[in-house]
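Dear Dr. H.,

I hope your travels went smoothly. While you were away I took the liberty of generating a structure for the chain from your last submission, since the lab meeting agenda had it listed for discussion. I wanted you to have the full record in hand beforehand rather than looking at slides cold. The sequence, exactly as received, is reproduced here:
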Amino acid sequence: MSLSTPFGRVSVYRVAVLVAFLAAVAVAVFFSDEPLAPTFIAMSVLVAVYLFASALDRVREHPLFNVANAAWLTVVFALWYLSTDESVFVLAFVVLAAVGTLVEAYNYRNDTSYLRINF
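The corresponding predicted structure, in token form, is as follows:
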């Protein structure tokens, strides 16, 4: 379900996810006794920008969306890795996301959809 706005058509469901995410971050910040880590702020901003952008139909329909999505995920996982105690488990996510970015770049360049799950 999409609504027409000055930004173009917007997915109501994706906006609902954005609002839920922003509410969760606000609750986490409000109830936290510790100072905010720079990686938490960076990841929160990146996720919020991504959720807003992906709510726009014209962004999701752009040919580079899958490449940008994979690259964004790699950056978020890399920030997560930096914010942990260099966990090997999180590093595996970084490596897998980087491989996914390379696959999506290949798919974009050759107009294919290898290793992509479409549902």
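Two observations you may find useful: The longest strand covers residues 2-5. The helical segments are 12-31, 38-55, 57-60, 65-83, 88-110.

With kind regards,
E. W.
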